[in-house]
Amino acid sequence: MELMIDIFMDAVIDTAKLIPFLFLTYLAMEYLENKAGEKTVNMLLGAGKKGPLIGGILGVVPQCGFSAAAASLYSGGVITIGTMIAVFLSTSDEMLPILISERTKAKEIVWILGVKIFIGVIAGILVDIVVRMRTGGTQKGLHIHEICERDHCHCEEGSILKSAVTHSLQTVLFVFLVTLALNALVEGIGMEQVVRAAAAHPVRSILLTALIGLVPNCASSVMITTFYLEGVLSVGSMLAGLLSCAGMGLLVLFRTNKNWKVNLMTVASLYGISVFCGLAAQLIL
Predict the structure, then answer these.
(1) Running DSSP on this structure, what letter comes out for residue 138?
(2) Could you give the 3-state DSSP secondary structure of residue 119?
(3) Rounded CA separation 277/266 (Å)
(4) How far is 57 from 143, CA to CA, in rounded Å?
């Protein structure tokens, strides 16, 4: 019974952290869709080439809400997919507080954050270049109304404040239910024992930690960072796991973006980039 209460409370806490980010994100999106002038919208869309750089830097702030906001902004056409991936790769989730609380050397913290930002920015830029080449350099533009149509929220009939609250509540409920199920699954599998068993095999460990990082909850970054500090995980395994650890961003992406092909390609890209960088770090360092 105590375990079930812990699982439930963890899901509540993880979800509650998203509420202010989601609300402000949806409020901004509704404003852009209904109130902002054409010049303002075009300026934002034209800033897409700088998006991965901005996303990579902002993503490193220790809040899983940034990845959730990035997913919503991408689904609404406000930012590019490269910007979203840059945020996903650089986001630190609970990593930074753990490193600081364990009195990790400042040099090591700066190195880890710097590597995550660098990989996020480069990967985001490359993804956007590939997408522009395939689409002829065009960007679809704002399509926030598509989210409204799918959710049947009738946003056009009310204020932007009401619309933002409606979308936020719908997304939060979805994230909470999925997080609750995932937390129960992780506890049932005994993820910590699995990671410890795989740690003796570097390549296997990198493949596993990158996969664990994809699990959309804050526990993933906590476990990976803690095991690295304890010496259980190598630098390559740690880097692979923390790169793929996008917090709640993937859950929000699947909730808000109807193109499942793009969603699955995003997951595959995160995993592939994380594994590649983890293997490279294992060989070099």
Answers:
(1) -
(2) helix
(3) 16
(4) 26
Half-sphere exposure of 164 (CA within 13 A, CB side): 21
* CB contact at 8 A, 242 and 221: yes
Spatial contact of 238 and 224, defined as CB atoms under 8 Å apart: yes
Q: Which two tokens stand for residue 74?
A: 């991408």
Q: How many CB atoms lie within 10 A of CB 41?
A: 16
Contact (CB, 8 A) for 263 and 113: no
Rounded Cα distance between 168 and 222, Å, is: 26
Both tokens of 206, joined, read 């990198």
Q: Which residues contact 24 (CB under 8 A, 6 or more apart)?
A: 69
CA distance 105 to 64: 24
Say whether 127 sits in a helix, a strand or coil: helix
In this predicted structure, the answer to whether residue 154 has a pLDDT above a threshold of 70 is no
Q: What is the mean pLDDT of residues 200-209?
A: 89
Tokens of 78: 């406000």
DSSP per-residue letters across 150-172: HHT--GGGS-HHHHHHHHHHHHH
Q: Which residue type, as a one-letter code, is found at position 27? A: L
> Which percentage of the chain shows pLDDT scores above 90?
27
Of the candidates 91, 89, 83, 88, which has an alpha carbon nearest to the alpha carbon of residue 44? 83
Angle subtended at Cα 110 by Cα 109 and Cα 116, rounded to the nearest 5 degrees? 95
Instruction: Tell me which residue of 222, 195, 199, 206 sits closest to 277, measured CA to CA.
Output: 206
Both tokens of residue 278? 């983890």
Q: Whole-prediction pTM value?
A: 0.84
- Answer whether 237's CB lies under 8 Å from 205's CB: yes
Tokens 């570097």 -> residue: 202
The single-letter DSSP state of residue 50 is G
- Cβ atoms 270, 89 nearer than 8 A: yes
CA end-to-end span of the chain, whole Å?
45
